[in-house]
Amino acid sequence: MTTGQTAVDAVVKAVADIVPTLRDNGQKGEQQRWIPDENIELLDKADVFRIATPGRFGGLDLPLADQARILTEISRGCPATGWLAMVWASNAWCATLYPDRTQEEVFTNPSVRISGGFTPTGTLTPSGDGYLLNGSWRFNSGCRGADWNIAAAILERPDGTHDEVVAIVPMSEFSIADDWHTSAAEATGSSTTTAQNVFVPAHRIISFADAIYNSTPGRTEGTPGRGYGLFSFVVAECAATFVGMARGAYELFLERVPGRAITYTSWEDQRQHPLTQIQVATAANKIAAAEALTATWWPLLQGRADAGEQPTDEEKARLRGESAYVIQLAKEAVEVLYNASGASAIQRSVPIQRFFRDTQGFSLHGLLLLSTNLEVQGRVLLGLDPDTPLL
Which segments of the chain have a pLDDT < 50? Predict the structure, then answer.
């Protein structure tokens, strides 16, 4: 498969072809609290795990907008699978922030899957020419299918000083707890991972600041136009998955509603009821509004990346606020459709209830909360400091 638009279209088509299978596998994923192996195999065959891998390592090296398009399509089939694909793809991009030596190790397999996050709940202490990693990280989405894991930690020096850093470590070095029992996002298997005295070579650790500002020493500039701001990149990809989830719920509703009577009324076809008409139009417009808002981001972020610049703090704050608003619109669209689906929709065998629960659960992620992100955006709009380094 070649890179460029042909590659993007080929991946999108391959994913569209497996959407019915992803939906059919949804209930099984919830029952086992992890997506079926078939989902991973199908995504791998569709080249999904190569979308963020640099071209020099055999990856597709796609721009952010194209990655988002693919993640949206996956999420249309299965919210949990879309979320995990987003985690693995965004962390594969994060791996490009590490020194060349690290990238050569991580991208030995261009279809690499990387889990992890940026909450520093571990510690690193100097040991020889590296560090010992200890700690536990909760809600580690994708850990059960990952090759590598990104772990934020506090680097503790003998003189008492410390820094926030981000380590990348083979997933095999972590233990995975069986503690993922939830009412939403069940199939993501987002368990707690733990490291005990795991040795991490120095070249597999970068400072939190270097990760945010794309300024790691010992790193050769990769493909021009891929230097997006860390959190702008992550929240944009998260928003894309929510748009896909909303699209999927909309399709499921339209498939199910024809011929459905409204119980205890004289309405024999729910489509004929004005309330249903209003509900489906409301959901459609919320999805369209979310899509229109995301479409304004790609030229902004790509323009900055093509110029070799980071987005400004004002632009990053805007992305934080608008991405959360897109997620809210998508969540509301799914909620409207679910509420219009009748009592039978609470059955596990009816997929729309899973889309409803998963969008509710994912929207509670700390980085995606509407209130937090609107506060950041609002501060900047009012001429104040954003009051957070997580831009």
Answer: 1-3
The vertex-4 CA angle with 114 and 108, nearest 5°, equals 30
**Structural class in CATH, domain 5-106:** mainly alpha
Could you tell me where the beta strands, DSSP code E, fall in the chain?
114-117, 122-127, 130-137, 148-156, 162-170, 175-176, 193-201, 205-207
Cα(367)–Cα(376) distance, integer angstroms: 11
Q: pLDDT tens across 5-23, in order? A: 889 999 999 999 999 999 9
pTM for the model: 0.96
What letter does residue 110 receive in the DSSP assignment? Answer: T
Common-topology check for domains 5-106 and 114-213: no
Instruction: Break the chain into its structural domains and give their ranges.
Output: 5-106, 114-213, 230-381
Domain boundaries 230-381, CATH class: mainly alpha
* 114-213 carries CATH number 3.30.420.40: no
DSSP letter string, 26-93:
HHHHHHHTS--HHHHHHHHHTTGGGSSS-GGGT-----HHHHHHHHHHHHHH-HHHHHHHHHHHHHHH
**CB distance 132 to 78 below 8 Å:** no
The residue type found at 251 is E
